[in-house]
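Hi everyone, sorry if this is the wrong subforum. Our group has a chain we'd like a structural model of before ordering constructs, and none of us has done structure prediction before. Sequence below.
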Amino acid sequence: MMMMMEWKWYLWFIRMAVMLSVLERCSWCTTDACLEHERIALLHLKPFFNYRNQLQSWVEVKGSDCCKWEIGEFNTTTRRLIQLSLNSKKWEDNMEYGMDNRNLNAWYLNASMFLPFEELKRLYLSGNVIGGSLENEGFGKLSSTLSNLEILDLSENYLNDSILLSLSELSSLRYLDLSINKFEGSSHLRGFQLLSRLNNLETLDLSWNSLKNTILFHMRNLSSLKTLRLSGNQLKGRLDHIHGLNNLTNLKYLDLTNCIVYKSGFQWLSRLTKLETLDLYGNYLKNRILLHMRNLSSLKTLSLGGNQLGGKLLHIQELNHLANLKYLDLSRNKIESISNK
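Answer:
Right subforum, don't worry. Here is the predicted structure as tokens:
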């Protein structure tokens, strides 16, 4: 009897030793490690985004925990990727080339490579000199699988209007940054119209592209927008299509800096009753612009610096109606005096 008991204890001891040995060699199998198929998917992305060896922590060693890689953020419960940051300095370095040669380094993205990250909420791809998507492999492929994607940053790339169709299928987006690209708003106008499918979009940044005045008309159905940035575009002259913003009644922040605007046509402003920040810096606006400010009762910040306001500001009293105004910029104008009578 004693020998049988000793034998059972001996077997138990051997089993425990084997289990501990396996766990020690395979610590990556613990619930704290990232999912294996997501780790493999990240390694597939590495060759395309490893500029200046910025992804050196992404090691192709079986069992390496990608939760510890320098990439973004994981869900602490499911261990799934929820934020992926692949921003690059490649675009900035490419600025050293002449304007005619910058496209030489542009490349085309296979958006399907992001499909394994089913809980992804935030994706940052700024500065990678992406020229577009491979045929039939655009961002539209992600619409059904990445239903949680809320933030997409594609700034500082070489994207043009042709990518808008696939982007319009990402209906979960709340924030879309397309600044500093090559959008013109002419060759694929329907693309900008299709952005109205983005019913949850709250922030749209189209700054520093080559968009013309007509882009304002195609913003009219983005009724969920709270922030719209159009600075540095070529709106030029009188904003004939600015009435297209009439429907953006939820808009709180509007940036039209450095857009070469010299005739306002800002009568539409009175409908934007929730607008809190209006930035018109660096245009060619004259004194009469103040006449169109009086109904912006929610306005807290108004920038009219760097325009052509001059002489005696007889219409400044229009700002008396702006009870919430906290910041007013009239710098870099040619104002001689201000009359509030």
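For your construct planning: The domain at 211-341 is CATH 3.80.10.10 (Leucine-rich repeat, LRR (right-handed beta-alpha superhelix)). Residues 20-31 have pLDDT under 50 and may be disordered.
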